[in-house]
Amino acid sequence: MILFYLITLIVFLISYNIYRFYKKLIRSSKVPTINDGFFLFQNQIYRINLTDLFKQVQIIGERTNEVGGLAKFFVGPLLVHVVTTPDDASTVLSSCMEKMFVYSMVEPYFGCELIGAPYSIWKTNRRLINHAFKQNILDGYYDFFNKQAKRLSDAMSTEINKESDFRNIISRILLEISCQTMMGIDVNNKDAITDNYVKALNRVIEILVVRFMRPWLMIDSIFYWTSLKKEQDQCLKQMWNLSDQLVKLRKAEHIKRLKNKETDYAEVYKDLKNVDLAINMYINAYSVYITENRIKNSLDILIEHTVTEENQILSDLQIRQIIDNILTAGFDTMSSQVLIILINIGSHPDVQKKIYEEIIGVMGDEDRPISKTDLGKFTYLDAVLKESIRLYPVGPLVARTSTTDVQLTNFVLPANSHIVVHLWGLNRNKNYWGSDADDFRPERWFDDSSPSQPMTHASFSLGRRNCIGKSYGMTFMKIVVAHIVKKFTITADEKKLEFEYALLTKPSRGHLIKIEPR
Questions:
Q1: Is the pTM higher than 0.90?
Q2: Contact in structure between 183 and 244 (CB atoms under 8 Å)
């Protein structure tokens, strides 16, 4: 009898889900279906590489634009809708707050506190971390950004007059910046830590993409027994060690300060067990760094707003996951974006000349830090960055799941629909950007050819779950690019650029740059 009821329940659940699927399919029947792009991907899913994967992502955006800005495709039985028009994108990003289920796959890597968090958790944590990105905090980073930009240009100067791959140099400096502004720890010139962290992160992302492209590896019980799982765990341990220890250190320091006791760093440090030698080196130097060079950082701010003498709103693990999220998102996205911007500038000598003339017009030949006032006068440089980010958004897709029916311009998508806002396609939609939408033309930001709707250039996403680090990233990238263009003439060829897609868009080929002293 029990078996009968069990079988009946299983049959009912299967039937009910089939009914829901076909009901959803019928309601979406008038939405155009794009076949050639993603079906090609499905046929090659077991042997596709990351470059091919990016091409398929690109095709989806192009085909959606061709059919009017809203389309659907299937991944097996999974129905996915794609949006590339500003009005519909605005509707989705404003009303659909829950991330698509695929984001749950990042939980073992980045936790579920920010990037892939349910809306209720994200809302609380976003309110807390907003304190770390207020304008007065960002204004305190100008001197530090200038020092790091100079370090980057000095490091690049070792590769003069030859085509070079600057990815490692840029990634290293960007990680150093993120470590200091997000975690308050100085890792400048500590290549062993920065290089190993970058390698570990890249490998973790590659493993995540492999799991996505090989569906059987999405099943944890199967993935657990693979060599990829062991490799992943080693990489994650390497990534988490530093932040784990720093959270304990900063929290202990904060509580001592609340109790109005003089901070005895030796007492704090001795409680941190099993710290590897490299991390211990930083912790032992921390008492000097904290008094001489300290700038306000995200970890300190988060702890200040969540930890009291008697209570702790967030656990150590939650704090660490939030900091890891913004650290990884910050340096990894900016590393690729800075490289792409330099390639765009190096491919257009006329654009580079205008940037240089603007910088000299504001700063002269004087070798000094770039101030906030200076940055406000770099209007052409600002347009160049916007144009590069429009054409090459490093996060080209935003995936949401609707919790209610969604009224778009011409269709109503039912509740529980999976919807992808295709930023790459949106930013190149010729109905809004014109026939030259695929061309790099910074002047469009000064004439009437740039669309007025904010959602037409949503590379940082918009709506309530937008990118918290937009002002931070734009400020730093302007300072870095200004330092480099002032010091070097850049030569590159954007026509050779090829990309790969591993959660983020990154150059895979054609990204070599030649620099010459001015």
A1: no
A2: no
